[in-house]
Design goal:
It is a single chain. The protein is mainly alpha-helical. 68% of the residues lie in helices and 1% in strands. It is built from 18 helices and two strands. The protein has a two-stranded parallel ribbon with strand order 1-2. Helix 7 packs across helix 9, helix 7 runs antiparallel to helix 15 and helix 7 crosses helix 16. The termini are far apart.
Amino acid sequence: MPRRFWGVKRLLKMPITETGDQYSIWVGLIYIFNLIVGTGALTLPAAFSRAGWALSTISLVFLAFMSFLNATYVIETMACANAVLKWKKLQSIKRESIQDRDTDEETTSQQYGDLEEPLVCGTSIPSRYYSLDQRVELGEMANLFFSKTGRLMFYCTLCVYLYGDLSIYSAAVAKSVMDVVCSTVSSNVTNGRGWESLPCFNATDDPMAYTRLDVYRVSLLTFVAVMGPFVFFNVQKTKYLQLLTSGMRWLAFTIMISMAIHLLTSRGAEGRPPTFDVTGMPTLFGACVYSFMCHHSLPGLISPIRGKNGLGLHLSLDYVLISVFYLLLAFTGAFAFAELNDLYTLNFVPSDNENIFLKIVDYFLSLFPVFTLSTSFPIIAITLKNNLQSLCLDTGRIESYNVVVRKILFPVVTVVPPVLLTYYLEDISVLIEFTGSYAGAGIQYLIPTFLVVSARRHCVALLGLGVVNKYKSPFSHAAWAVFVLLWSYMCIILVSVHIFEKKS
């Protein structure tokens, strides 16, 4: 048998893997756990307290389920993309083999009989076309399965979400630094209106003294001046930096939960969250969507996993554990503190405590967003810059464009809008409400649903009904897709009405 035909058989029998280390499914789930449980969780206690503990619990569990449902859609679409790429590669090899064949038609027919034909009808069979071995990012899926209009909408939604991410990161860092530098005030003051006019230091009587808003803006500009230049380069997060920030994140979350439990046991519940308060639902929705966001990064974490059988079941276990963790963080915070900051770490602003250890812990928690978000900001900014270039330029001939356009214009367009937005809008809850409720809903709900529906239709037309995708979502009935779309549109409408009512 000619060598090319052995290559075709190997193409179907052997996984197409990315270069780099592979890891077990449990390690992969830990990575997904760490990806989901990020700084978004710091906004949950305040949103939880405003919407009421019962309504928040029901909403958080339901939104966790919706996030898991759409994660299975991303996995199914990734398997479909692998199948399409394998099919195209197979057809390319076949065409080359037919052009070079020296044998008669009968021999060629026998050789093709050893292959899995794309168009299989009748009894459903497991297919080697469908796999998760080759990493296919959301943008590549959009290019495969969306029309030109769909691709445009995808990139616009992704860019808006990433802009929102950068704005939230910038505001969170600047506000954390401000609260550490300035004198302590009660959280109901910092969460309400008028805090920006307060003097940074209560002891001063100088009318020209720095206000809290001045310090916030200086912190913001300093942060962007330090981290912004990285967007001009292709800086990638290192493995050791990931380990360091991951360890700091878990240390911070463990300390916050432990201290809240200690406060509850020592002085009782000072917080009195209501049972139901629908007025807090939009903020809670934005915080939950933001806190369960992982869909844009799932392909890169799933493809290196060895032995992907039972991936859906293991992923559901991950979501259960994350939901329990979020409920523990939100419940302890909502009942331990009478007033909660939009950013939970600000409830641990250093006080005049004489205990050095507690002071160190308070400073660590207060500056926690600064440590973690400073490492994430350049990566998110570079991702946004690359997507803006993909949207506006022909990436196939990127080097042909003017160096000013490539090296200066797009980095500036990436960094400047979030800085201007957070310079004049310091309210993190508003930023999260908008980013999570609009762009977040698009990334987490609408895009995976439209992708999976289009991918199913595309693969059936290409491979036939009998070729089975073993990574098919358990929510494969069309009614589930309709339900997700209706839910997304309903939430967007409700959030929009709430925002307009607040302005009126």
